[in-house]
Amino acid sequence: MLKQLLLEWALKQRQKKMQVSADYNVETYLDKIAEYFDPAKAGDRELTVVYEFHDSGDNDGAWTVAIAGGVCTVSKGEAEQYESKFYMTAETYRRILTGKLDYSKLTYSTGAIRFFGNTLAHSELNSYLTLPKDCGVAGL
Fold it and tell me: What is d(CA 136, CA 99) in angstroms, rounded to the nearest whole number?
């Protein structure tokens, strides 16, 4: 009985730590993709990536990152055609942003992110970004 109570308490504590704060907004960080985009790195490459968030309250929804003609745009909504789509919770994305989750190693085994299409598109997208050292994110 005591063991069960301790396990339930520990689980509740873990769930509290995993909750996203009320002021966390995925759109704020997705917009940084266009801000940190380096057209010289992308060259003439065209790439469309969709981020879709679920079970995240106000952060639910889809956003499309499109690179074409040396310009990167981020828009709300899902593109009809894309190279890759990432389906995750806002908490999973927060953990990627802060460097607490390495999407390339852990997501396949834990199922934290579901990929549709080209699974390497996220790495490719990040290779076109120049993140300032003081920007506060490990990856987008």
Answer: 10
